[in-house]
Fold these 3 entries.
Entry 1:
Amino acid sequence: MMSTYYAGLFADIGILFLGAMSVYIILATGQLSLGNAGFMGIGAYVASFLTVEMHLPLTAALVASALVAAVIGVIVGFPALRLKGIYLAIATLGFGEVVRSFLLNFDRMGGAGGFHGMKHVSLEYIWTWAGLIFLLIVMLERSRLWLEMRAVHDDETAANLVGLNTTMTKVGAFGSGAAVAAISGGLFAHHYVYIEPGNFGFERSIDFVLAVILGGSTVGAGAAVGAALLVLLPEWLRFLADWRLAAFGVLLVLVLLTRRQGILDRPLLDKLRFRRARS
Amino acid sequence: MTVLSLSNVSKSFGGIRALSDVSLSVPEGRIVGVIGPNGAGKTTLFNVITGAYRAASGEVVLGGETITQWPSWRIMRSGVARTFQNIRLFASMTVWEHLLVAQPRQNALWRNALPVSWADAEARTRAEDALTFFGLEQYRDVIARTLPYGIQRKVEMARALTAKPKLLLLDEPVAGMNAEEAADLRTLFRRLNERGLSILLIEHDMPFVMTLCHQLYVLDFGALIAEGTPDEVRTNPLVLDAYLGTEAA
């Protein structure tokens, strides 16, 4: 039996893993979103409303909240994705803040006081979702669709000129990322059984991006590694007491200085696969 | 049958007329060349055809459909493929991936979301064919951008051909190549042409153009000043004056 301490950490990892995957999908098309905590918030509130007030089963509520977030993602994505690079990042950051302040003023769902009444969900349930979505991504990574996303990532103009509808690709990825972020949010709400707008602020969006960048932004498995490190490292560094967050920051910088692409990348995964095949 | 025709196409940038009243056509199964001095508007012409720029006036017709206002991706999915003057390969992709990415999608859209290795035998066959045709087998799993220049050009052409175009646009395909590599490509273009592919190309290398093209157009300061067979163009005094100068006489 796992201790409650580790169970809590693993739940956090699963939720962060989903959030990181939501960023990864969007990043695969070369777009950086700093607003995915906004979609997470939407997912958390919609799913909680559906289970607590509408008495829907959690799985149905999660699917519904993912759809709602995807639609909002597409609506926001169309204008936002005309922007590139840092301008897009700032626009998505703005979106995240809009969602947070909306929730803050939305008294129907508790406003600043937060919302509760959700039923606690098991660790296995969280990881079933994380695992399923991860499998989906691993499959997608081998598809034509993903190649198209990478083409947009590498050279948007050339992608257009080999016949790829780059706008659809980007908006589609943004909507899918929003859906995954919403599932992360729904699970968060039903793990902590209490949510408030502050849970879905800017820092959360940064955590998602950080997990992807640290774990490896070119392979889906990077999101898992990044999420695990982001949750576990500060715990393992507890012996440093007050210095642990500083040490964590230093470690982060060191990793990125030595491996700009993050810890995992395609060549490394291939090498690991080879070794396994030989032994 | 005409694959592509332009009628009275004009395009300006600020006060500069990059193209004025250009009309040309590519008959099916022909290799047509566009020559002209630097800055004559050749690349602008390609950009208008492929929808990267919009023509200010005039009409571009592809296989009977007016495509003047179409977005690039739609034009390129309707039977046109192109290569670039400065090679544009995707930085993260292997040669093999380049040969898959531009292919026509499967009709059942959801199948495009499944792994190519189980869901798209047709795409794999087409990619294998392109690999063999261009002699790229040994580079299959290499990141294309890390290959020598001449090989990269071949990858770009192979990528263009996997889109199953009716018309191939080549923007200075032998720029920066030595005589041997250029001769190699000439043979390759002839073979493609014999299979029924129509080609429109821009090129600076005169001997290459003269020996490959069935028909030539000459652009100077954005306007067509001559057209005809390579022999007709070679002896046209206007062309000699504008472009070829004394060295080709």
Entry 2:
Amino acid sequence: MVPLTGYLLVGAFLFSAGLYGALARRNAIAILMSIELMLNAANINLVAFWRYGEAQADLAGQVFAVLIIALAAAEAAVGLALIIAVYRERKTVNVDELDLLAG
Amino acid sequence: MPFPLPPLPTIGQLVFTGIALFTCASALGVVLARNLFHGALALVATLFGVAALYVMLEAEFLAVSQVLIYVGAISTLIAFAIMLTRSMMYGKTSPLNRQAGKTGLFAVLIFLALFGFVQSIPWPASAAPVLANESMIAALGEQFVTNYVIAFEVLGLLLLVALVGAVMLARDN
Amino acid sequence: MQGSTWSDGIVGLLTGLGLPEMLALGIAYGIGAFILVNFGMISALLLIWITRKAISRMQDRLGPNRLGPYGLFQTVADAAKLISKEIITPSQSDFLAYNLAPVLSVFGALMLLAVVPFAPGLIGVDLNIGVLFVVALGSIGVMAALMAGWGSNNKYALLAGFRVVAQLLSYEIPMVLSILTVVLLTGTMSFGRIVEAQSLTIGGLNLGIGWFGVMMPAAMLIFFISSLAEAELTPFDLLEAESELIAGFHIEYSGMKFAMFFLAQFVNAWILSALMAILFLGGWQGPGVGLPVIGPILGFGYFFVKAYAVYVLQQWVRGTFPRVRIDQMMYFAWKVLVPAIVGLIVAQAIAQKLPFPDPVIYAIIFVANIAAIWLVATMLQRYIKGESLRTKRSFEPTSLIGTMQEAKEYAMY
């Protein structure tokens, strides 16, 4: 049996990698992909805690993981639509060039 | 001679190590790839790795949903968006912004902090056997229409709003 | 998993030899996987032969008839030719995406074989999420096509890749929803149990003809139409429309890599027909499958006869129908099939909650299905009438005489 620590460490790694990508990449699509990584990290933790936890019968971990997956789908759809609309308008998807509102 | 050897890893542990390394390596690929399309492919690999982890956690329903929604829908959408904005891909500029160095340091620190935190707590090393699988899917469905019905309904509303919003935003007028 | 399956026998034999159970199970599944994968490869050779024979008969040709009896070995020769061909890689192709795409597409097709119930107890793994597994693996094919289109650095391939995504994702929805009608009725997603639910026991004898296709003809039709689109067959073969896209997303592939796409396509088409046989035509159910020894053998036979019959039906449609336009294809998926099947599911869900005995509920579902077919047929008839009138008017303005309409409105079509 794999100890719970293993899953938590994978989750921590995915979260850190996603955090780095979300903060350091310039391309908006890359940022979106990094956010997906972070959501997955949270999901791994939820499912792992459900599996190793006391209250397996109420399936809360799986329920929340399903909710997060659906949320990620909605987020990707709206986010990518936004990115494409911005690209049409400004011919760029680099977030540090989209500084029209910066003072 | 009483020299304490560590116990041999079981097959499950070996498989887990392989999947974990694969997942982490492809996650690094997502954030570090210069070519955005390669990044998207690495994302698909990561999502498969996470699905495999779900299988190891005996949450097969989630694993298959993960492949269906993430690989089938979200990754395809991302690949589409990359192709539609593809003039961005061959820019001479760096894919990273000015704060990349500091962010990298920050991310490593966060990981180390989480690592230490996870290691310091005595988690349970093994879990109770999972309940019969067929009843688990039925139970999951029942949870959605009893305990978590509000979350479920709000999620349905959110998906509808996202659908309409995405169509409105991406429409070419 | 329920009952005794094929793997139990092998595991029992191996543990009897003194092997640990884990290893025995591993060996058993290894053997099963080996047989299934090779079955997929070899049946693809047969499928290509059936396709060529069926289509040539419909076009009043003989088809392959030189090599072996009835030209059976023609495909083997073709495969040998493809293997020995030079592999040409386009310059500036994306190495990773270009080379991974054929592997992924074959992987997606062969993985599907793992959940197909061939006979009572003969199923690779009777996953209790089998239906979802099949749907999820379908998305791998989409990804592979997209990778191939992007990786080969060719605008026709890329366009075809876009079309693949649009078509396969659109038709996946009516297909999944039509499977959902079966899942609603049986209350399980395991293929083994779906097939078992289609028995019809009269007087203690399993006649095996309680097929869902009889009760739900509309769902079956919708599944069949979407499976044609999913397998990229003729009314919906815009993905490889020779006159527009040359060959589709695999245009830049040669030799064995092309053969892999080809193989994946045929195995996919066969699995979709097998799925139709499983979900709506009873799978291995048939008269006499309840018998002790001869039952499984009969079931194996029934399953293959049904699966290949549906496959030949697919080829028949392919040899008969013209190709639809891309806007018609999307229109048909989103405005005809999806509303029809959603309405059916709502009707069925309500019917199943009514406080009537089972036969009455089944009758209500049957009536709803017939109504759906009638509605769709009427709508299509109106559309076709309008379309033919429009075409006629754009070519013969004289037909407008006496209709009080201007010709220029139609000139743009």
Entry 3:
Amino acid sequence: MSFLMSSASAPRTEKVPATAPVFELIEVEKVFQVRPPNSGLSRKTVGLRALDGVRLRVDTGTSIALVGESGSGKSTLLRVLLGLDAPTGGRALYHGAPIREARAKGRDFARDVAMVYQDARGSLDPRMTVEALIAEPLRHFNIVQKDQIKARVAELLDRVGLPTDAGRRYAAGLSGGQVRRVAIARALASEPSVLVADEAVSGLDVSTQAQLLTLLRGLQRDMNLTLVFITHDLGVASYLCDEIAIMYLGRIVETGPTDVVLNAPAHPYSAALRAAAPRFFEPMPEPLSGEIPSPLDLPPGCRFSTRCPAAQPDCGERDPQLGRFGAHRAVACLHPLTNPQA
Amino acid sequence: MTAKAAPAPATVPPAGPSGNGAARGKRSMFRRRPFFTVALIVSLAYILGAIFAPLVAPYDPVAQSIDAMMQPPTGAHPLGTDSYGQDILSRVIFGARYALIIGFCSVLIGAVGGLIIGLAAGLSGGWLEWALMRLIDSILALPSLILAVAFIAILGQGVDKVVIAVGLSMIGPFSRTVRADVMQVRVQGFVEAAHLMSIPYLQVVWRHVLPNVIFPLAVQVTIRISEAILVSSSLSFLGIGVTPPTPDWGLMIAEGRDFVSFAPWMAAMPGFALALLLIALSIVGDGIREEFDPKGRRGS
Amino acid sequence: MAMTETDTLLTVSDLTLYRGSAKILDHVNLSLARGETLALVGESGAGKSTIAMALMQLLDGARIEGRADLAGAGDLFSLSSRQMVRLRGKRLSMIFQDAGAALNPAYTVGRQLITTLRRNLGLTRPEAYRRAVDLFAQVGINDAEARLSAFPHQLSGGMQQRVMVAIALACNPDLLLADEPTSALDVTIQAQIIRLILSLTRERGASCIFVLHDLALASQSCDRIVVLYAGQVVESGPVAEVLNNHRHPYTRQLKSCVVEIGRADLVAPEGTVPPHDQMPKGCRFSTRCPRALARCSDDAPPPMPANPDRGGPHDHVFACWNPE
């Protein structure tokens, strides 16, 4: 479940309704102080709102896709979720406690929340063998006895579909798909309950991508992982994730169950993304006009109003917040495209 | 460096051209780089000659003989003799000892000093980094020969003093390359990944930053040995390095300079030995760098 | 689509390309009619970009066999590099995946466009400037006069690609090669750029070869499709015909890997492309093919017409001994 924090009682996941969600973001805001372009020698800085009023809730055991184009704030949101950046406003909670505090308190957060980087190759030390790379978290978190490390590494390699002899190789000698598998094995080594993956299958051939997607889905189901999956590909999101959150210019504009949102998008931006995704033999859609505005120069009112094909006069005046839309959805639009279903 | 490309596992595409290239490179590096191979053999010959100098050299390098002064190359003295009647071949062979010892030791001093300063500058940031970098810049502003001369002026003459002087003069360039490598490594994904795993900072430096800095440094060492030898020989040539009658090439060239018109072999032979060693070491250093640098290899 | 000889713009016959001992392309045959858009699809290592680069003579250190006949210019592979320079831009031009890297960062985009116009069309500076403003407007760059004086890094990825399209079409070539022109861009921008390329080439009556990895995108944007696997053409023909009534097992595999929205089942294919020194002599897909026969690995299947009654070089063709 991933919508308004005010509706925490909605009991869609029957499993553990009593405990606090894994992640909860309440009006999270992240402002970077930057020097504006063409400012010459002036030292004056302006605030860049990378995140602006983000509300998100990730319950235990769900899989949620964060979807958006470049400049939507996905990466910043990821860094806030991982406790690498502190939000400049609002609250970012992990099991009810601020994420930064949870991270500072000890190894438990680091062990429980594992990360698969977009640049999987860069996230692996080029001077360590695959075996040493996977053994590092095993040793660091004392997952198994010392004499069992080798066996556990072999087990993990097998789990991600790599042969045991891959352990002796270096990342530079592996293909793109293999490197991603190593990164996944390393993330799983600490036995996390949450897996955060940043574009984990992008930039790969379709058959490699298909192999990784089936692997990730199997892992998520078998190990009951909570999955936060950042992607730009709606097909990947719909295959892998129960929930979806669509971001535009630092704000989540629509969230809800993936199939419902993608079948009947309520926000015009969701609809545009949906239409732009290539589909067999559909005529090329009328694309969105223009490009994403600079976050330094947000349009007044709704931030999507400059490109929105369904913009009304009041869209340029009032800034819509993410609000409830039916039972399990939320949308930030003054004139949603569909009617909420109960 | 790379493990040999094992047969690609069933589920994943093979490593492609890069993987195959690495495996192919492993097998025939010596055949693909003939210059490197020749240079390596030459360097090894120098090293062996230096180690076994007493066995290889036909004469005592400091034994003077009034009967055989300034003889041109003959059967008895293949490279001739100098103005004291010392055998030049023997002196060149023993000279390799001094050249190589001074080269290795001073580069080691430079590399260790550079590693410490470079790591500190690259990791600290803030005012400490600023202060260290200005220090390095001021060292770099002077050529290493001038610096070595200055250190000799403070320390005095002798082989050990030359080693220290040349070593200190090389700290500057080493620390700059180390710092550049540190800056590059510390923003890499794997360092952030280790941080994310809440591995303590010093452990990250020890386990992930240092190994990725040490290797390029080792390559630098092989390249800079020749520079150190050149500087030490220049010091001797200027008459402020090692003292006579030590069989040092720089010294021998300086001594032969006065007789160049009628006994050219006196300066030419040690000069040739020096040039050959420097060229061979440079080629070896370059070959090692090109072959093992992971940045150059990652290509595709 | 009835074809006569005069309609054909480009015919590639038996193109085989070696790099060292590795055979990167293996007897590739293609033909392209005037005004047609063709998609080259396949996975990495299939050789789809290599074909485009070979046509532009942009490959170093490759040994090429076979012919590529461009109408009115003869065999491209036998032209000298000087003759090729004269052809590039005017007859055929290319746009790349990474427009930011293809543009020279040291010059304004306007200067790069104007230089192209002046060199290839012999225009005077004011003429070229007017033409450049015109072209920028055509590729949908608002405020063209101001944008001409921008440096590449000051433009977004989508804008850079528009500039590349403007430069590529500046001299009205009749063949445009687009190598993954949108895979570095966001999906909404991708739709803009593909539509732009299609409408501009159509307006000019030019042909276009798209190198793509996305089958669905190929089905939306192209007339015909060529499916490549490890340097061999496995199937080609009209896009709807090939994708709906595929005959080659690899085309099925490629199709089955496309993750469409709402798709719940996904069967990942087994295996991997063999390295070049272990490539089978015959059909290169035979090592992974679920329908492989004994002869497949030794005996390369020739191109066979899917509809023998219709025939013609432009119709649906596949290369398989045991077609579906």
